[in-house]
């Protein structure tokens, strides 16, 4: 809130308090209702306060005068605004936003009663309504974070208590496709975009940073694995995402592994994932994205085509290189690439974990002289020693900008997994909370040993701002999520960004960059 507005807000609130107080005093002191200001040039409609103040609508439950309720409202509002000024506490700013909203809605209803039902206009009541509307407009515009905070809170409650229980009765892949296609529709609808943009995204200089030459409005991204058909590039910026990775995209199309491809583990806060690089293929994705403008940095995750029998290691490398070539020749305005070497749900014995195989793959991709940064999506099941050996190999290839930790949890005995939930699924691996601990350990390991060489992106188990902030403080410049959004709702992203601002202020940090690695 700008300081010069405070006297205006206080003055308006005090005027409203005086107006409501005068009407309350008149109600209790005399049976004769005060006349409105009379002007013979105005219709009688504007000159009969008594018709309004003596109507059945002027008291609540036949006992409590509305003027008294107005007096209480303005009294509370004045006190709350003063407390917000004196203490500077966020709680009172939130209360101010709530109180002005209640006042504006109530005034809107009272104006309707006067004009439409009673068919007369009380100038004193009109003054109170005008003050309420002005206060609401000022608060709406200048208390943006508080306004969006309320919307995020209410939206989260609705999602978790109404929408999610209903969605969780339906097959997860069906809901996934429905939500993705809904997002695509909303992203292509200008009025929908305007409304959502007013409600959700948080923009603040503390969250902006430049990573690998790319400008990010905030550090929260959508991980590869959700938007594998490039549905969501136009909707994600307006719900608060700072970046997105499409895919994983493969050179040739693949319909996905046999069902089940998705499953829910609510007690474990996890999803069973068995898609196996389900992809329409590079050509289709390029066709969809060619000449599209993106408001946020968009990445393309590339992996080897799944489902082709007897594909050799060399053929797999050639397949990946072919996909990169297609995107490099295209007009797609992606900001970066991800090279996914860690999907645990692929057929065949192809692996890029052995150091020689990893070296061969990176050497082949390096020959393309890619113009955009490349991030390697890493496994989380490898030991520290094995991970450091892989990072050592990767560090030799200068075209690789950074690494992402990490992918799915393969260990079905992990303590974070509920054993009874795991037994329901004979196939697949697990996202969400079961990946968090190891992801954080590897972020810290990579930052400690290669923090000056690699940009690190943290992925796995982010369900709230503390989860995201922990990854950042362990060394991640950016973070990605999927599962947390499914369990907490789309408003989670704006909520994390809003609360990140508070955490940075609390720690005395001017920018998100200052928080990267401070716990290492």
Write a brief caption for the model.
With 520 residues, the chain is of the alpha/beta class. It is built from 18 helices and 15 strands.
List the defining traits of the structure above:
520 residues; alpha/beta; de novo design (two linked rop proteins); TIM Barrel; 2 domains; 8-stranded parallel beta barrel; 3-stranded antiparallel β-sheet; 15 strands; elongated
Question: How would you describe this structure to a colleague?
Answer:
The structure is a single chain. This protein has 520 residues and is α/β, with parallel strands linked by helices. It folds into 2 domains: 5-142, de novo design (two linked rop proteins); 194-515, TIM Barrel. The protein has 18 helices and 15 strands. It has helices at 5-29, 49-53, 66-87, 90-118, 123-142, 144-167, 172-187, 190-199, 236-239, 282-289, 313-329, 355-366, 384-395, 419-422, 433-450, 465-474, 483-488, 492-506, and strands spanning 59-60, 64-65, 209-211, 214-216, 220-222, 243-250, 262-265, 270-273, 298-303, 336-340, 374-378, 400-405, 429-430, 455-459, 478-481. The protein has an 8-stranded parallel β-barrel, surrounded by 4 helices.
């Amino acid at each position: 809130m700008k300081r010069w507005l405070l006297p205006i807000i206080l003055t308006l609130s005090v005027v409203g308090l005086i107006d409501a107080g005068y009407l309350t005093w008149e109600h209790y002191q005399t049976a004769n209702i005060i006349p409105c200001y009379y002007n013979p040039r105005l219709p009688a409609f504007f000159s009969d306060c008594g018709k309004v103040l003596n109507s059945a609508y002027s008291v609540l439950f036949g006992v409590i005068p509305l003027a008294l309720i107005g007096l209480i409202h303005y009294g509370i509002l004045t006190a709350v605004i003063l407390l917000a000024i004196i203490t500077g506490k966020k709680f009172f700013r939130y209360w101010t936003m709530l109180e002005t909203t209640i006042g504006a809605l109530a005034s809107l209803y009272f104006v309707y009663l006067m004009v439409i039902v009673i068919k007369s206009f009380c100038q004193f009541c009109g003054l109170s309504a005008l003050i309420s509307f002005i206060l609401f407009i000022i608060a709406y515009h200048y208390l943006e974070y508080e306004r969006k905070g309320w919307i995020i809170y209410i939206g989260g409650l609705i999602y978790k208590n109404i929408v999610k229980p209903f969605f969780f009765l339906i097959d997860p892949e069906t809901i996934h496709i429905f939500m993705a296609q809904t997002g695509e529709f909303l992203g292509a609808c200008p009025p929908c975009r305007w409304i959502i943009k007013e409600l959700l995204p948080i923009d603040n200089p503390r969250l902006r940073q430049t990573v690998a030459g790319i400008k990010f409005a905030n550090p929260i991204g959508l991980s590869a694995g959700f938007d594998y058909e490039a549905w969501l590039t136009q909707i994600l910026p307006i719900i608060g995402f700072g970046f997105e990775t499409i895919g994983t995209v493969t050179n040739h199309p693949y319909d996905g592994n046999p069902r089940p491809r998705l499953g829910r583990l609510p007690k474990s806060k996890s999803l069973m994932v068995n898609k196996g690089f389900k992809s329409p293929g590079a050509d289709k994705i390029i066709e969809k994205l060619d000449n599209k403008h993106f408001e946020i940095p968009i990445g393309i995750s590339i992996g080897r085509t799944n489902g082709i029998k007897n594909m050799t290691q060399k053929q797999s490398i050639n397949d990946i290189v072919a996909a990169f070539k297609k995107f490099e020749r295209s007009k797609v305005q992606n900001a970066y690439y991800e090279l996914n070497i860690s999907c645990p749900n692929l057929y065949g014995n192809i692996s890029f974990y052995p150091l020689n195989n990893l070296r061969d793959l990176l050497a082949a991709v390096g020959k393309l002289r890619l113009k955009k940064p490349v991030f390697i999506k890493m496994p989380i099941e490898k030991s520290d020693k094995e991970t450091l050996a892989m990072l050592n190999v990767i560090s030799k290839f200068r075209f690789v900008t950074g690494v992402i930790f990490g992918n799915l949890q393969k260990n079905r005995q992990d303590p974070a997994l509920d054993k009874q939930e795991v037994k329901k699924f004979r196939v697949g691996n697990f996202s969400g909370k079961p990946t968090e601990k190891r992801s954080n350990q590897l972020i810290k390991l990579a930052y400690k040993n290669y923090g000056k060489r690699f940009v690190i992106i943290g992925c796995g188990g982010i369900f709230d701002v503390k989860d995201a902030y922990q990854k950042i403080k362990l060394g991640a410049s950016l973070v990605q999520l999927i599962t947390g959004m499914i369990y907490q709702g789309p408003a989670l992203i704006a909520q994390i960004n809003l609360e990140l601002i508070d955490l940075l202020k609390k720690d005395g940090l001017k920018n998100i960059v200052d928080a990267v690695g401070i716990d290492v």
